[in-house]
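Hi support team,

I submitted a single chain yesterday and got back a structure, but I'm not sure I'm reading the token output correctly. Could someone confirm the output below corresponds to the sequence I sent? I've pasted both exactly as they appear in my results page.

Thanks,
R.
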Amino acid sequence: MKTKLILVEDDLDLGMVLKQYLEFSDFEVTWFNHPQDFLSNLDHLKTAELVILDVMMPEIDGFTLAKQLKELTSIPYLFLTAKGQSFDRILGLKIGADDYITKPCDPEELLLRIKNILKRNQSFSDIIIQIGNYSFNRNQLTLQYKDEVFQLTEKETELLYYFIKHNHQLVSRKEILETIWGENDYFMGRSLDVFMTRLRKYFIHDQQIKFESVRGVGYKVVLPLEEKST
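Hi R., thanks for writing in. Yes, this is the structure output for that exact sequence:
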């Protein structure tokens, strides 16, 4: 069975090129060239494994769509953006996107990014890890504190699990960026800062949990752990 993708892109030429290339690469692609059409057909989310969102679209932009998606599903998504300013990229990651690519994009690069996201998504096992007063479900991409459940993004989940594997260790920013983001540059560094801020906010209720910044090096994270199979 082919992996199903959703593409929301209002540029007819680009949309057709990406759809054809991804279908040639053995994906099943549902393409919407208007955001309202996508919102009128949300049933497609039930079977899709990834959503690709253009940022600049008429009436409803990709950021707005992403915020609505986050309320409905934990499906991963990435942005297509024609803008080069770091503000747009950081905003997208703050909203919860798993990745982004700048237009005009190389379809092969987009394909590789899609495969990386799907691979990360499929690699999580059914294990719940107790982190102090929190329960972290890697499979469901959730973090729970008492009755409050936080729906994590793929990138948040991957970053948190990275720190679990390197608990009590000093890890460099370079290593984190190359492992999680695949590259070490200014924009990826800003993205890491955003995600670290978000992780700290999730864990504010447990003083045992520490995300320590080591100036000029990276991070040392202290997590009281207990792992349980489900």
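A quick pointer for reading it: The radius of gyration is 18 Å. Let us know if anything else looks off.

Best,
Support desk
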